[in-house]
Automatic annotation (TrEMBL):
InterPro entries: PsdUridine_synth_cat_dom_sf, PsdUridine_synth_N, tRNA_psdUridine_synth_TruB, TruB_C
Bias type Basic and acidic residues, positions: 235-266, 429-470, 479-491
Name the UniProt record assigns to this protein: tRNA pseudouridine(55) synthase
Keyword Isomerase: yes
Pseudouridine synthase II N-terminal domain span: 69-199
Presence of the UniProt keyword Translocase in the record: no
Pfam families linked to this entry: TruB_C_2 (PF16198), TruB_N (PF01509)
Catalyzed reactions: a uridine in mRNA = a pseudouridine in mRNA
Amino acid sequence: MAANKVLEGVFAINKPFGMSSAQVIRDCQEYFNPSAVFAPLIEQERALRDKESRYQKHRRGKAKQAIRVKMGHGGTLDPLATGVLILGVGRGTKSLQNFLACTKTYETVVLFGASTDTYDRTGRIIKKGRYDEVTREAAEKALEGFRGKIRQMPPLYSALKMEGKPLYEYAREGKPIPREIETRDVEVAELDLVEWYEPGTHNHRWPTEEAEPAEKNLVDSVWRVAKQQAATAEELSKLTPEQREEEARALAEYNSKKREAEERVDSLVSDEQQQQEQQPPAKKRKKTKEGRAEPMMSGALGNLPPKGRGSDLVPPPPAPDTPPPWEGNGPPAAKIRMTVTSGFYVRSLCHDLGEKLGCGAMMAELSRTRQGQFVLGGDNCMEYDELLKGEDVWGSKVRRMLELWNNPDAKASETKNDQAAAAPTNTGEARRADQQSKDAQADKPVDEGKAVQEEKATRESEPAKNEKAAESATGPERTSVEQAKEEEEKAAAAAMAA
C-alpha cells in the first residue's frame, strides 16, 4: 500500500480492563492524529473543510474545528470487560452498524454464592445463598436450559423506568412495581462450561458493600415477578400497545444511560486534545511545521496519553492476599464460553444461572473473543499495548488490518503467491535430483553384450505375453478351436506322406 494513500476501513483492538470504549477511541486518536500513517486522511479532511461555506463552518462549532482522525466503534464493551472492540476509521465508520447485529463469542467467569444489583462484582450485594452443594455437574445441567432460543430479562434495576418513574425510586419509596417486566428474545448458539474452579482455588471475591433494605426488597420483587412470568405469546399479549411502547423506550433509555456510565460522553471528541488546546503553550507537545505533534523516536517505548474520564472506571480485581469476605474456602467459580446473538446480556446469564442453582451468582470477569469475523489474537485485531511501541510498530499493523478490510482476498492471494514462490524451488530440486540420478547411471560401466541379450529377451517375451493374455481373454472356447486346427494340420501332413 502506497505511503501517501488515504487509509480508511475497519479493524479491531483488544480493549483493556477498566476502560470505556470511547476512551479507547480517544487514545487511538491521540496516536493516529499526528502520525505519518494517517497524514493523507488528515489532509483530505482539511481539503474538504477548505471547501465548506461560512455557514457550514459556523454550524460545525468551535469544539469540532480541530481536524482529527474520524473514528467510532461497532458495539460498546463494559469497562469490566476486555477483548474485541471493533473500530472504524474514516468512511469505515459507516460500516459499524453492520456489526451490532452479528453473533459474538464471550468468555466469562461466574462467581457463585451471592447476587448484586448490577449482576457483576462491581455492584452491591442484594442477597447471599448456600453454595455447599454447587458442583460442576449441577452447573452443567442448569446450563442446558439456557441453550437455543430463550427469553431473557435485561438487568433492569440500574436505570429502567416504569410508568415514568425509575425503579430505584420505587425502592426508596417502598412501593411495589406496578406491573410485569417484559423479557426479550435472544438466542444462544453455543454454551459450554470450559473450566471449573473449586472452592479455595481462585482469587475471585464478592463485593464488600451491601445494598440498602429498600433496594433489596425492590430487587427481590423484580426477580419474583420474573420467575412468575412465562415466556408465551398469550401472556405477552396482555401488555397494551402503550405498555409495549413504554418498555421499548425504557430499554432504550437503559442502554443510553449504560453507555453514559461507561463512556461518560457520547461523542468522538477527544477530551484530552481539548485539554491540551487549553493549556499554556509551554505545556503543549512540540509541533512540527505541518501542525502535527512530533512523532516518537523510532523504536522508542512511549507512554500512554494522560488518563481521560473513561479510564479506571471499575476497581481492579482484588490482590491474591486480600482476605475473602467469607469463612472457609468460599464458593466455587466457573469459566463459561458462549456464542450469542445481538441483545444478549452475559451478566444476566450469570445472575440467572445462580438463581436456577438457588445460590446466587455474579459476573466476575468478561472477555469478548470474537465479533463477526474479528477474532482476538487474529490478523485483524491488534493489542492495545502496541500503541505504546510507536508508529514503527502499530503503523504497519494498522496498515495491514485496513488493507485486509478493503481487500479481503489479499490474504488468500498472498498464500497462493507464497505457494507459487515455493514451487520453482521444489521443481528445481526435483530436476537436480533427476539429473543427479542420470549422471549416476552414466558413471556406471556398461556391458554391451549383456545389454543386447537383455533387449533380445525382452523382445522375444512380448509375443508370449500377448498370446497368454489373449488366451486368458477368450478362455476354453479358444482352446477347442486350436485343437481342431491342429488335428487338421496333422491329417494333411499324413496324406502328403502317403
